[in-house]
Write a structure and sequence with these properties.
687 residues; mainly alpha; two-stranded antiparallel sheet; two-stranded antiparallel ribbon
């Protein structure tokens, strides 16, 4: 520990962020040379990703560090801070982006949108801006990094700006990003203007400039009024929720993720969404010291509603990347629900249960960063091999793309929540927190949270269904199109394989050794809550709060499974009366069935669509019985987009047209406007 205390971890982390900027600029040296960008720029960026992961891991075991950098003679000072919480998210950023960056070195090709040098520049600026968001310790630096992150990701989404759908998705993303940024500016202004706690601190604050009041250290000492606190929290939820895809601010996410290149989609889903959750944690539990049952219940309700909406929409999607994007909405909803449950327990003065719920949230974020990254990258390899994104045009790719297929299987099982993988541990911890909710002092509140546990189980079951649909339709069965039989010639290259295998390993290790990960999580949450959960059982076995109540040991489950499998194999060989023989698979009496007769994506999703019909906006097209060329089509849309956002956009456009008529006046009209404005200002000044 003594050597860790002497390491300049914060300076090194800022140096890595600066290194990403330099690597991005190096991509412009040969902007149209794909070999240069792939063999030099992205590998160097991957080395910096590994360095950032190591620095984040070390920061979990080191004391907090602060740094102030003056910008010239303007008096503006940028504050930077590295503690266990930011270290945990830097570790998440570094490990997840290492896999996607290694993959990206073999992914981008000439003729696919923007030049490779431009993509390399924006990609590494995106990484640098996300790391600066995690290190910023004042409002000015945070918003600067936040806007840089939004701009870099927006330009990456527009890589194929020759397509109309890509331009539309980019515009929607930029609009929601700026809406969130405006809310964050207002929130920081409220916190900066709040009076400081105590007379001594207040007297010192009077001598400070307004720039010094923008630092997070000053905001921690502020005591906003109840009204200002409620408004600041509302602005924080809207601002950060818009970036994280919280219902009903999620409309951009299913549009932007499919439009971006797959490594960019992977980064946006795996890391960028997590920066919004980090910032919300920083504001609620560090700056505002929030202790509110109401806000906890609000986040819990919004999170569960978003998780249900996300998984239902994912179940009926026919586009690979859109399915994964809706799945990210579901997972972010679960993270918000876990945070809301932690706030509920904290307001009820139950710190151990609050720490359990927050640990479930952080574990969920780490697992999702690896598994969803892996699946987005796998879809990128499939798209390169087949030029298809529609599930109905795919099938049987496991035989021709084994590296992609087996890696994607690991990510699919992790996202489905199967035991021995990280997804199961995350859901199990969150369910344990829900199950313990009857200990809340208000019985009615306990009943409400228990209903949330039932909804969590439904979401988990539907998530497993979605993953079965995704993997089964894409990789299993027979190819639905003749061209897919040639996909093996385009299987993932060496760099892509390395990235996929790396992320697949990171999906398995947290499930086998959850105790190790949860001890890292405990270090990240201890500064926020002042309380951690005693994870009994060592590296593998989990026993939150009490081993008598619930425990889980994945290694014991592995040994038991291997023993039962061995016993089954030995018994089958011992009791077999005749030698084994091969025979054609039974096809339900149908001979010569084509590949088109396999279960389709539409067939998988139809039961869910019919069961939850009120939650969908379905547009069907069917031919009559006498039609010589029968056709059938069905389009499922987001009901919030068609019933909320589109009418709102139409109203804004109508208002803009009416306002545009004000310009259609002569000189006399403009003079009248000026006179009226001066008159109003005079009245306001003289009041």
């Amino acid at each position: 520990m003594g050597s860790l205390n002497t390491l300049p971890l914060l300076g090194l982390a800022l140096g890595v962020a600066g290194g990403w900027v330099l690597v991005g600029l190096a991509a412009l040296w040969r902007p149209h040379d794909t070999h240069w960008v792939a063999s030099r720029v992205f590998p160097l960026g991957a080395v910096l990703c590994a360095a950032m992961a190591l620095l984040g891991l070390l920061a979990l075991f080191a004391p907090p560090r602060d740094m102030a950098l003056a910008l010239g003679t303007s008096g503006l000072v940028l504050h930077w801070h590295l503690d266990a919480l930011s270290g945990f998210f830097l570790f998440l950023l570094g490990t997840s982006s290492f896999g996607s960056t290694v993959f990206a070195s073999g992914y981008f090709r000439n003729g696919e949108g923007a030049p490779p040098g431009q993509i390399g520049l924006l990609y590494h600026l995106f990484l640098a801006s996300m790391s600066l968001v995690l290190l910023a310790a004042d409002a000015f630096g945070f918003l600067l990094a936040w806007e840089a992150m939004a701009l870099a990701s927006y330009l990456l989404v527009l890589t194929r700006d020759d397509l109309q759908e890509v331009r539309g998705a980019g515009f929607l993303y930029l609009l929601m990003a700026h809406l969130g940024a405006l809310c964050l500016v207002a929130m920081f202004v409220l916190l900066a203007q709040a009076p400081a706690a105590g007379p001594a601190v207040g007297a010192a604050a009077q001598s400070h400039t307004w720039l010094q009041g923008l630092s997070f250290a000053a905001m921690r000492q502020a005591v906003p009024t109840p009204a200002a606190l409620a408004l600041a929290m509302l602005l924080a939820v809207v601002g950060f929720g818009a970036k994280a895809g919280l219902l009903p601010l999620h409309a951009w996410l299913p549009e932007a993720h499919p439009a971006a290149p797959s490594p960019v989609s992977a980064l946006m889903s795996a890391v960028m969404l997590k920066t919004a959750l980090y910032a919300l944690l920083r504001v609620t539990l560090d700056l505002l010291h929030l202790d509110s049952m109401g806000w906890g219940l609000a986040l819990l309700l919004l999170g569960l509603a978003g998780a249900l909406m996300g998984v239902l929409q994912a179940a009926v999607q026919e586009d690979m990347k859109r399915l994964l994007a809706w799945s990210s909405v579901e997972n972010m909803g679960l993270a918000f629900a876990a945070l809301g449950l932690a706030l509920v327990f904290r307001a009820a003065h139950m710190p151990a249960l609050a720490a359990l719920a927050l640990a479930a949230m952080l574990f969920q974020l780490l697992h999702h960063a690896m598994a969803k990254n892996l699946l987005f990258l796998a879809t990128g390899s499939v798209m390169h091999a087949t030029s298809q994104r529609s599930l109905g045009m795919l099938g049987g790719l496991l035989h021709t793309m084994p590296w992609v297929g087996w890696s994607a299987l690991v990510g699919t099982l992790a996202m489905a929540g199967l035991p021995l993988l990280g997804g199961f541990v995350a859901e199990w911890l969150l369910l344990q927190a829900f199950v313990l909710s009857p200990q809340l002092p208000q019985p009615l509140l306990g009943m409400f949270v228990v209903l949330g546990a039932a909804l969590l189980v439904l979401v988990a079951a539907l998530a497993a269904f979605v993953m079965v649909k995704f993997y089964g339709v894409v990789f299993l069965g027979r190819p639905r199109e003749p061209a897919l039989t040639q996909a093996g010639t385009h299987d993932a290259g060496p760099a892509q394989r390395a990235g996929l295998v790396f992320l697949a390993v990171l999906c398995v290790l947290p499930g086998l050794f959850p105790g190790v990960v949860l001890r890292l999580v405990a270090r990240a949450e201890q500064p926020l809550l002042g309380q951690v959960v005693a994870w009994g059982g060592g590296w593998s076995r989990l026993a939150p709060l009490s081993a008598q109540r619930a425990s889980f040991d994945p290694l014991a489950l592995v040994l038991l499974g291997l023993a039962l499998t061995a016993c089954g194999v030995l018994a089958a060989h011992a009791w077999r009366a005749a030698p084994a023989r091969r025979a054609p698979a039974w096809a339900c009496g149908e001979a010569g069935g084509s590949a088109r007769m396999q279960d389709s994506a539409e067939g998988f999703g139809q039961p869910v669509r019919r069961l939850f019909a009120p939650l969908f906006d379905v547009h069907s097209q069917a031919s009559g019985p006498g039609d010589a060329e029968p056709r059938y089509g069905e389009q499922v849309r987001d009901p919030l987009r068609t019933r909320l956002y589109q009418p709102l956009a139409a109203a804004v456009l109508a208002l803009a047209r009416r306002a545009g008529r004000l310009q259609q006046v002569g000189m006399a009209g403009y003079l009248l406007y000026t006179f009226g404005t001066l008159l109003v200002l005079l009245v306001l000044v003289l009041r």
